[in-house]
């Protein structure tokens, strides 16, 4: 009798256990993708992966889009790189034209923080090189042992002093004294500060007339179109952009590093400092070099920018 009772109880228990299952191992749930799990649990085998994929798709992360650091991307009203900061609120946009507005002589001397970056006038790095902020540029101030314009550079260590007689190699006196005045290992006319400086008269320069004569007229080791003084001079017609070069408006605006030097389009000096190029807004002509604006947003304005003072076709920097 006891044995019969135990058999009945065991049968009831087994029936109860089997009845608790919600579905058979081989029955596909409505939410499943048609596969069953390997462990026989009846759970969706890829439900975790689906959840992860959904989460990844819904939450943008920095780097989802292009880095927001160009004039176009920093003025389009979009959070292009998905870091939750739009245009000028994104640090990547610092220095771009839409966001770097405090860079003219007027705005750098009005007592206002015009671009809202927390720095006013000459305390703003964007004003470096403007007339109000570049005051260390005379023989007296460049030889007194003081950082007169407060830019962290004293006397001849300050680029503003480069054209003074006590510093740099960028005037007739220092370009003909047989001395490496700026300690860059180049002496007198072999120094770009002399040889590529239209204001220096004691050195022979490459000219449109000499850029096809097969001679290294300025003695810098480069003849004719191999010399940037020829190839970048818009007055010169003898030089053409070589195949694979980044030196035409088309090549300087195609988003490609055509010459494979690690710099693309207007970030390449072959574009930005080339007088033939019109798509980069460079600071390398008489108009841009005399307007009081840092046109190429590199921190140097007009004749304080080598793009002006080292371009033979720019004449406004010679006083």
What is this structure, in a nutshell?
By secondary structure, this protein is largely without helices or strands. It has 6 helices and no strands.
Structure overview:
Mean pLDDT is 77; it is low at 1-6 and 13-63. It contains six helices and no strands. It starts with a helix and ends in a 10-residue tail after the last helix. Helix content is 14%, strand content 0%.
Q: Tell me the strand percentage band.
A: under 5%
Helix content: 10-25%
Q: Which series of helices and strands comes N to C?
A: HHHHHH
Which parts are unreliable, with pLDDT below 50 for 5 consecutive residues or more?
1-6, 13-63
Whole-number average pLDDT?
A: 77
| SS content category | little secondary structure
Summary tags:
single chain, 319 residues, little secondary structure, disordered N terminus
SSE topology sketch:
Blueprint: H1 2-19, H2 47-58, H3 192-195, H4 228-231, H5 269-272, H6 306-309
